[in-house]
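Progress report, Aim 2. The chain analyzed during this reporting quarter is listed below.
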Amino acid sequence: MNDSPPGGRPLRLAWVSPITPTKLDSVTWLDTTRELRRLGMDVTLLAAGQPAGRHSYRGIEVINIPRPEIYFVSRLVFHLRVLLYLLPRLSQIDFVLFHPISAIWLFPLRLAGRDRPLLVMDSRDLLDFGTTTLKARLRNALERLTYRLATRLADGQTAITPRLAQLVGIPPRQLWGIWPSGVNPEAFAVARAERQPPSPGEPLRLVYAGIFLEQRHLLPLARAVRRANDEGMAFRLSLYGDGPQRPALEAYAATTGDAVRVERPIPYDAIPTMLAAADIGVTSLPSPDDVKYEASSPLKLFEYMAAGLPVLSTSNRCHTDVVGAGRYAFWAAAPTEDDLLAALRAAWAARHELAELGQTAYRDVDEWTWAASARKLYEALQAGLRRRAPVPAAVAQPSRRGSL
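Predicted structure tokens for the chain:
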């Protein structure tokens, strides 16, 4: 392919996403695609979905690539179908952007010759080194192999944070750029416009929306809420989502007299309206020394800020690097009952300032929008294209005519 697009032609990107477009975390791919298209890039988003063909999700056109729901077989079939889609179109694409889960299947595109697109691997999550099951160990071994191969077979790499790029060992020469998670603030305007403070005697409303994992320490928070209420404060914690911790959370919630509610997951488009009925957003609550979270970019934190909510968080770097000295965060030094109770006490003491703190959080979200993130990805791809541009022959090997 030509190493730089001809004048006036947009950059052409094929983005391979293993995430089903209806899942909550698909917002990363959908909203970034929207913003890249606004910047003038021609983006083809290939995602695992049913039925096959072109479909619209939250206003974004996606090409669904169906796959069977059988472990490993689903991955094999999905990527074979992706290759069948890409191979006849390679000369029409400047970049193929993909994630480590897709790398092994897409690296053979290097054999396509001069007209092939540039292969760019994007990393957005860290290996879970604490897992012990055979399946997890095999997955981690495969991902380590992927990163070793990527240093040889990918044309470039991008990452969600500088810390992640460091931890997975992306060579500086191959790191094209960093682009974090983000948020579309206008999507959360309803939360800011419709929120009403609690009436006298009503509890402060804490809300969490996400997966229920032990590492997110929701059960210690639920216990801390009960202890706070026993001390004379008034909180109600609503947990929206699903996951392995759901049975334990439901069992404990049943003992709290409605102070803790475990709700079903809700569609992404319904989250802003749900946040209108909240006073404080609860992020994931990782330990401060949890490296996996330290390397992440906290999407949920950005959404709470866009909704005009103060937040309750642990002081992991993924949170503190965003909020800094912002007063709108109630910090727990660690995700223990005692530390979470201390954060709840601070929130209760500031209960009459929550609206003002939420406005400050909203003002701070400007640098964490999907528009800002997409711009960083766009600039990373442009920078990578410049790196690959050939040196003109007249410069690389000056003519010796007339010197003999």
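DSSP finds 16 helices and 14 strands in the chain. The longest helix spans residues 134-153. These observations will guide the mutagenesis work planned for the next reporting period.
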